[in-house]
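## retry 2 of 3
previous attempt timed out at serialization; input unchanged, resubmitting
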Amino acid sequence: MNEEIYCAISGISAPETPSEIPEGWVKLTIERQYVNPKWMAIQVVKQGLMQQTLEQLPAEDREQHMMMVQIQVEAQYALLEDRTEPFFSHVEEIFISNPDENEGVAHVWSEVAEALGLDEMDEDFEEEESEEGEEEGEEKGEAEPASDT
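## retry succeeded, writing output
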C-alpha cells in the first residue's frame, strides 16, 4: 500500500503504483493565492516616500516633478521589489479513491464533482471510450450489417 496517498473521503490508502496516482483514482490540486505582505509594505513605503518628497516642493511645481520623483523612488526600491514576490500560493493536493469501487465514495464524489462543474469530465471520458471502441471495430473490419431496404 502507498502510505503517502490516501482517499480524502474514505481514508483508505492507495495501492502501490508506478504512476503518480492509482488507476481510477482522482487527484485534486487546490491552489490559493495571497498577496505577499512584504510586497504590499514596499508599495506603501514607495507611495509614502513619493508623497513626502512631493510635499516638500511648492504646490505649483508638484505635478511637473511627479514623474521624476516616481522614477527616483522606483529606482531606490527596484532591487528589493524585484527580489520580492508579489504573491505566494498555498497548494494542497487531495486524492479520492476510485468512485467505481465504493458506493459511498461514488455518492460523495458525484456531489462534489457536480458542485464544482466537473460532471462534464466523466461525460468527456465516456465519449472518448465509446469513440475508441467504434474506431477499434472499424480497424478490425467490422461493419454495420447492411439493410435490405
